[in-house]
Amino acid sequence: MAFIDYYKILGVSKTATEKEIKGAYRKLARKYHPDLNPDNKEAEIKFKEINEANEVLSHPENRVKYDKYGKDWKHGEEYEKAQHQRQQQTQYQSGQQGFSEQEYSDFFESMFGGRGTSSGQGHNAKFKGKDYHAELHLDLKDVYETHKQVLTVNNNNMRLTIPAGVENGQVIKINGKGGEGLNGGPNGDLYIKFIIKNLTQFKRDGNNLYSKVDMDLYTSLLGGEILVDTFSGKVKLKVAPETQNETKVKLKGKGFPVYKKEGEFGDLIITYHIKIPTHLSEKEKELFKELQKIR
């Protein structure tokens, strides 16, 4: 597997703070989000890379392993354990202490890259099982509330709790639900990628939702009340007199739930779209002409 520079993908230095990494991820995720780049394959690929980089660098333990082992960071602990056992097995044969740089690379290729090991080397070592990867396809409405769902992986059914607020393209890890370990080693992990389709009238950007609402000319001029849709139902809004076209109104806490933060929600930003009346009667035309003269 070729080395992937996660720091370069997020556009940050190797000394970047957690805050800098988080900020860079949010900025790029908004830029390349599939909802804002429909049918753009390059943006889709970029969005996947950004999420993968954030999954590693935003997690302190994963970041330490990545900085130390590069592309083999997932198997760092297995390497250290196996290296220690191999040292004990080979000391009496050749006096060799550990692996050279070349052997380090060969070790990962043989253990995790599919090649067989040579006879007598590491046959007693414990190795982690294969990681499994699965996709779970959901609608946006499905992830507005936390719920349980059955996922079938390798003919095994698993009952999962899907947290509210999961994003499209997000990957979560379930420890120990991968392949069986070798020689008594730990099981691999299960990585689930969420593919979320949005069939609603709302556009999602992180925890915020966006919607356009049509308003008649008379309400926009004189003010009044209108009913608008939110993700959880309708609400009544007061409209100020002389409201202009494309005016934006923020409904705090009416957006999407924040991932793994129960009771916290983003905002709903509504943009008013004023509809000009058509098919005017002669009386209406006269009234508008009188108004025009007054103005």
Provide the descriptors you would attach to this structure in a database record.
295 residues, alpha+beta, Helix Hairpins, HSP40/DNAj peptide-binding domain, four-stranded mixed β-sheet, three-stranded mixed β-sheet, 8 helices
Give a nutshell description of this structure.
This protein is 33% helix and 24% strand.
Low-confidence parts = 92-99, 112-123
CATH class call of the largest domain: Mainly Alpha
| Overall pLDDT | 83
> Which CATH architecture of the largest domain?
Orthogonal Bundle
Main sheet: strands, sense, barrel: 4 strands, mixed
Kindly provide the radius of gyration, computed on alpha-carbon positions and rounded to a whole number of angstroms.
Answer: 28 Å
Describe the structure.
With 295 residues, this protein is α+β, with helices and mostly antiparallel strands. Helix content is 33%, strand content 24%. The chain has helices at 6-10, 18-32, 41-57, 60-69, 76-94, 101-112, 217-222, 282-294; strands at residues 132-139, 147-153, 156-162, 171-174, 190-197, 203-205, 208-216, 224-230, 233-239, 248-251, 268-275. Strands 6-7-11-10 form a four-stranded mixed beta sheet. Strands 1-5-4 form a three-stranded mixed beta sheet. The protein has a two-stranded antiparallel sheet with strand order 2-3. Strand 8 and strand 9 form a beta hairpin.
